[in-house]
Amino acid sequence: MANSAQARKRARQSVKQRAHNASQRTAFRSAVKKVLKVVETGDKAAAQAVYQEAVKVIDRLADKGVYHKNKAARHKSRLSAKIKALA
């Protein structure tokens, strides 16, 4: 249990920040799944459009430190490779 006023405040802040980061991670995963779903349909143009939206979400979370920049780059690379593989 937090004993000082500062520690109590930091505990309150961490609960709030954890909830915010959780929703951000959910948005990340949803964006990735959305791209994968469009890739399965085989529509390359639609996949590229959805990919661009996903990249915005992924980069924003990497910049804010929710995810490591290498994890963001890895996801973008793999999604891009799947789109390029479409005929």
Automatic annotation (TrEMBL):
Signal sequence residues: none
Gene Ontology annotations for the cellular component aspect, listed alphabetically: cytosol; small ribosomal subunit
Region Disordered, annotated ranges: 1-26
Membership in a protein family: Belongs to the bacterial ribosomal protein bS20 family.
Biased composition (Basic residues): 7-19
Known function: Binds directly to 16S ribosomal RNA.
Organism: Neisseria zalophi
GO BP annotations, alphabetical order: translation
Alphabetized UniProt keyword annotations: Ribonucleoprotein, Ribosomal protein, RNA-binding, rRNA-binding
InterPro entries: Ribosomal_bS20 (IPR002583), Ribosomal_bS20_sf (IPR036510)
GO MF entry, a single one: structural constituent of ribosome
Pfam families reported for this sequence: Ribosomal_S20p
Name assigned to this protein: Small ribosomal subunit protein bS20
Domain of life: Bacteria
